[in-house]
Amino acid sequence: MKKVSDSWCKPVVSRHGNVVSGGAARNVRIADLGGMDEIVATVARQTLALADAVAVKRSRSKLRLVS
Fold first, then answer.
1. pLDDT digit string (tens) for 29-49?
2. If you write DSSP's letter for every residue of 4-62 in order, what string do you get?
3. Is 63 left (phi over 0), alpha (psi -120 to 50) or beta?
């Protein structure tokens, strides 16, 4: 069976200077970003901005210049 790797669990230095890994590392990263609610809200905002940019690009490609 292939070992699954989770980059959120790789070793990280906590606020107290300790190197932690696994679930503790994931918790440190989540806390540093303001908690899961903030992470989800940030991802949602970024995804909406990306979708808007794609829509603008698509609509501009259909415009024709008339002289």
1. 999 999 999 999 999 999 999
2. P--GGGS-EE-TTS-EE-THHHHHHHHHHTT-HHHHHHHHHHHHHHHHHHHHHHHHHHT
3. beta
